[in-house]
Amino acid sequence: MALRQTEPWRYPSYSDEGGPDFPELPTGRFMQREKHSRSVTKAITWRFIATMTTVVLVYVFTGRLAMALEVGGLELTLKLLFYFLHERGWGKIRWGKVEVEPFVVWITGFSGAGKTSIAEGVAKALEGKGLKVDHLDGENIRELFPKTGFTRDEVNMHIERVGLLASRLEKSGVFVMASFISPYKESREFVRNICENYIEVHLATPVEVCEERDPSGLYRRARAGEVTNLPGVDVEYELPEYPVLEIDTSKTDTKEAVRIVMKHLKKFL
């Protein structure tokens, strides 16, 4: 079930020859999976414990060791057979199975609106449901492309590059949380069009509130002329036209914002 796709897929319109290059992204954590040998060993030890319990109970009630061992062996054989038939039978039944398609949650808003904190909270909640999640964040991704500038064309190229990466992760079965200022409509629409399931969340926090917070001193530096092309100061932030959710973090704290996003996402999980 696709959430929205308004145009066919297209490659990013970069001026770079040969298209974008994607370096390997550091995830900061390792995922663990259980080997088949471990699962088999656990199943055998559990079945051994259960069978020995049966043997002990029969021996306690009858006082006959031979009978206890025979009952234990019969119980082991029959339960393995019935378990095999039970699992094979349920494997052919589609009832109760729900397919969950990955999606891209794109959080946009002014610097200091709380994008990263909310994205981290939602990513953690999705991981708690056993889903594979990757969080693409403005600051971390910028470290991988340090030569990318901040003019309108450069920002759009950067967002298109990240959008293409997000769409590839989505196609690989990964749920993507993306937190970027992404101030321009054309690059946000590009991301919308190449992602199968795109969910846009606009943090509609007034720029005055974000500037009061100014956690990284970015607004102060922009006012002093040390930084240029900062949305809300010397360039316009183009408001999203069709966000799925709109949250003002001057009225809603991070915990509540995460709850609001997760409540919306539950219909797709």
Report on the structure:
Helices cover 48% and strands 9% of the residues. The protein is α/β, with parallel strands linked by helices. It has two domains: 36-91, no CATH class; 104-268, Rossmann fold. A five-stranded parallel β-sheet has the order 2-3-1-4-5, with helices on both faces. Helix 3 packs across helix 9 (254-265). The longest helix has 27 residues, at 36-62. The protein is elongated, with a radius of gyration of 27 Å.
Oligomer: single chain
Which strand order spans the largest sheet, edge to edge or round the barrel?
A: 2-3-1-4-5
**CATH superfamily membership of the largest domain:** P-loop containing nucleotide triphosphate hydrolases
Strand-pairing-aware structural class? alpha/beta
CATH topology of the largest domain: Rossmann fold
CATH architecture classification of the largest domain: 3-Layer(aba) Sandwich
Order of helices and strands: HHEHEHHEHEHHEH
Instruction: State which percent range the strand residues make up.
Output: 5-15%
Q: Runs with pLDDT <50, length 5+?
A: 1-31
Number of strand elements: 5
- The number of distinct structural domains comes to 2
Rg, Å, rounded: 27 Å
Count of DSSP-assigned helices: 9
Question: Main sheet?
Answer: 5 strands, parallel
Helix content: 40-55%
- For the termini, the CA-CA separation is 11 Å
Shape: elongated
